[in-house]
Amino acid sequence: MLVSFFSSGITHPPPSISSNMSPKNVVFKKICNDKSVAVYMGRRDFVDHVDSVDPVDGVILIDHQALQGRKVFVSLCCTFRYGRDDMNVMGVAFRRELHLSSRQVYPPLQDRESSIHSRTQAKLLRKLGDNAYPFFFEFPDNLPCSVALQPGPNDSGKQCAVEFEIKAFSVENLDTKPRKRSTVTLTIRKVQYAPDSEEPAPSAEISREFVMSDKPLHVKASLDKEMYYHGQAVKVNVSITNDSSKHIKSIVVSVDQISTVVLYSNDSYVKCVALEEPGDTLAPGESLQRVFTLLPLLANNRERRGIALDGKLKHEDTNLASSSIIKEGVLKEVMGIMVSYRVLVKLVIGGMMGSSEVDLEVPFRLMHSKPDPGRCVEMEEEMEFQEFKRSYLKGMIDDDEDDGNVSAGDDIAPKEK
């Protein structure tokens, strides 16, 4: 079994693990510059099951000497950014805070043992000792999933995105602005997986009549299923019966991604992420039956500005954004960026007065499959605390440097008790 090791959002090649070695739980850790506060979390992806969302839990480790009597708080924040943080128009910033919830961790407001919410937290508290304190947040059901619009090759600054972060900081009181050197921030993701229920395979058809033509043009398109997983090919069965007197000059089949920024403008951006243009023509009275295979992948669209992506953690790779699923009763206007997919079959029709088009749309969903439940079960084996090293970045700069955050070394993790 191979385990991916992460630290501060950086992916490192896993060492080989032989079958007789115990697998380890990977724990994300990060410490602020003045060493007063460190964050430990067992995961950074939290699943939106539509009817419920995984709670966010972790452990804060404090250093009494570095704290110097200050209190420690932790917050969960969801932010929608649609422009650079330093930009504003007529006093309106291009950043909107969708949710902010804060908790006082130290001095604790309740008994430490009674506030434990997961086995991972319990194991962390045993390992880290008496200066460790748990925290817990529940996601509101009206928050969007993590998604970002891909910037262009020459774009600078942070991208348009819905982002979540856990921030721990030490201050005299909650109204005091935290110092950067006393703050540690960890980006997390809210994600969705494909539902268990399967919808019928979608299809669509259209008949188009033309002037001076006794019979219509009939087009039908169908998919083999409604839900596709990232990396799967989309098979489109196209049937064309051209009983009209028109000549079909070309046939184009594409997969389009529709990203609707519903929060502030309701603008929609349609991007073709896979295309088949075989060059087929169809004369009057002819028919065509053909299966087109399209593969929507980020790898084929990396330089295209405005493609919606699943939110990523620092320099980890990601994929095309998953289709958005909204809980019934939740207003779409607060969901940030809504993503959907369709297959578009376009016929270019020749004519004496110029060309015209016949379009046929078939919607479908593109998502991740649910992980194997056996891999999601918390393991009882030893925990693996990963130390972040800048050499892993291979010349890239860690975005958190501006916030004064560094990751923790083993010096702040007490030995196993």
UniProtKB/TrEMBL annotation:
One of its GO terms (biological process) is signal transduction. InterPro entries: Arrestin, Arrestin-like_C, Arrestin-like_N, Arrestin_C-like, Arrestin_N, Ig_E-set. GO terms for cellular component: photoreceptor inner segment; photoreceptor outer segment. Residues 213-371 form the Arrestin C-terminal-like domain. Pfam families: Arrestin_C, Arrestin_N. One of its GO terms (molecular function) is G protein-coupled receptor binding. Residues 396-417 are annotated as: Disordered. Belongs to the arrestin family. PANTHER family: ARRESTIN, S-ARRESTIN. This is S-arrestin. It comes from Eleginops maclovinus (Patagonian blennie). The lineage of its organism: Eukaryota, Metazoa, Chordata, Craniata, Vertebrata.
